[in-house]
Design goal:
It is a single chain. By secondary structure, this protein is an all-alpha fold. It is 68% helix and 0% strand. The radius of gyration is 21 Å and the shape is flat. The two termini are 28 Å apart.
């Protein structure tokens, strides 16, 4: 029984993501159910409403660049850790969306450092939650 309540610092960062994922699944299911009920009440078809998934002339570079950066970020977390991976990829996401100009590069670097340090201080230092 003592093992059930034992606190392991090395795995404490697994606690909050499980709660968040559970909440997101419940909210997602609630949204889907409400949409289905609304469509049934308004006598609209459940599937196929004539709308397109993407708007015309969407920015393919930003869409696929974001997906690629997200996948690489997840892989980099394992290789180089939270702080380094987050600094690099927050900077790259900012550059992807703001462009490559000296002023935007400086702002992107500042945002990267400030946000990662803030997250590390709040979760790692204040709440003692290990970061991946």
């Amino acid at each position: 029984m003592g093992e059930f309540y034992a606190y392991k610092y090395s795995t404490s960062h697994w606690f909050f993501p499980k709660i968040i994922i559970t909440i997101l699944i419940i909210l997602g299911l609630a949204i889907i159910i409400l949409k289905i009920v609304h469509r049934i009440k308004s006598k609209k078809p459940l599937i196929g409403n004539g709308k397109k998934f993407f708007v015309e002339n969407y920015d393919k570079v930003k869409l696929f660049g974001s997906v690629l950066l997200l996948v690489l970020y997840i892989l980099a977390l394992e290789w180089i850790g939270f702080l380094a991976a987050s600094l690099i990829f927050i900077f790259l996401f900012n550059v992807l969306f703001s462009g490559i100009k000296w002023k935007s590069l400086i702002i992107s670097a500042t945002i990267s450092v400030a946000s990662v340090m803030f997250i590390w201080l709040i979760f790692g230092v204040l709440f003692h939650i290990t970061l991946p």
